[in-house]
Amino acid sequence: MSHSSFYEPRSKVTVVGSGNWGSVAAKLIASNTVRLSSFDDEVRMWVFEEKLPSGEKLTDVINRTNENVKYLPGIKLGKNVVADPDVESAEGISLVKGMEVKKEGPCMISTLISKTLGINCSVLMGANIANEIALEKFSEATVGYSKNKEAAEKWVQLFGTPYFIVSAVQDVEGVEMCGTLKNIVAIAAGFVDGMEMGNNTKAAIMRIGLKEMIKFSKMLFPSVKDSTFFESCGVADLITTCLGGRNRKVADAYAKNQGKRSFDQLEAELLNGQKLQGVLTAKEVYEVLSDRGWVEQFPLFSTVHAISIGRLPPSAIVELGDSRSANKQVGNSTL
């Protein structure tokens, strides 16, 4: 430890949220806080208190066993992770994918956190299926920041491990939009899988989806950079989510059941308390498209929403160019 570090206040880290990804984030961070002198060793993880079938509280079991037995069973979090049912205020980075749609327009989750807590909030997104990272399989992630490069470098230090490579880009909106919108495309990919349409069809849907992601992001936030979509948060996250994420899994089941079982039923049955993001995001994005008169410019996003509310059958996902004339733009690459 250098002489000067005795005088530097050590940063304390709290993870707000303790689901599958929150628990993996706590594990990653805890392995670094013990190693880095600029951080307090202890990592607090805020847990929404639940009673387990045994009658014990989830926080008590996490603190006794060092495992999140409900959302990440079989993985030790690190002895310096402490589960706590009370929220503390923390320096902010958001791992939440989604947006809130208000009358005055869409609001990103990081902006909501910034405004509510009065703090600078970065985001971390990427090709991050949590269970694989928990098993320490190699993957990457992207930190998006707006102005404070120093804070972004701190997050890179805090999350990065030899098996989890983190890079920072100055494009918080672009990084966060990638993490939000790819879940809509994953729902579309799940429909394709459920109807056994094959790899060429799935690749086409992913390509069209990526073009709509880029277009929508730039129409909402003109500062978004093209290069962001080539980071882990962009094309890599889109690929992994369309191959193996929870949104793909539930949409696959929805298509196999020909829409006869609702997304709510399938979510409860297949996800063990985790939430399905793509259907809600499709609804939120559709509200923006509808409000701004953009529906016909985004045939894939619009069709995913229509299928998910039962207005169209899952097979409509490959009929994007058939009905409305504006949809024929897809084939001409004008999106």
Textual characterization of the structure:
The strands form three sheets. The chain has a four-stranded mixed beta sheet with strand order 4-7-8-9, sandwiched between helices. The protein is of the alpha/beta class and 335 residues long. It contains twelve helices and nine strands. The protein folds into two domains: 1-89, NAD(P)-binding Rossmann-like Domain (Rossmann fold, 3-Layer(aba) Sandwich); 180-332, N-(1-d-carboxylethyl)-l-norvaline Dehydrogenase, domain 2. The model is unreliable at 1-6 and 323-335 (pLDDT under 50).
| Count of distinct strands | 9
Instruction: Work out the helix count.
Output: 12
What distance separates the N and C termini?
A: 54 Å
**Average predicted local confidence, pLDDT:** 90
* SSE string: EHEHEEEEHEHEHEHHHHHHH
Query: Quick one: CATH class of the largest domain?
Result: Mainly Alpha
What fraction strand? 5-15%
- In CATH terms, the superfamily of the largest domain is N-(1-d-carboxylethyl)-l-norvaline Dehydrogenase, domain 2
Largest sheet: 4 strands, mixed
Order of strands, widest sheet: 4-7-8-9
Task: Please give the domain count.
Answer: 2
The helix-and-strand class reads: alpha/beta
Portion of residues within helices:
40-55%
Q: Give unreliable regions as ranges.
A: 1-6, 323-335
Per the CATH scheme, the topology name of the largest domain is N-(1-d-carboxylethyl)-l-norvaline Dehydrogenase, domain 2
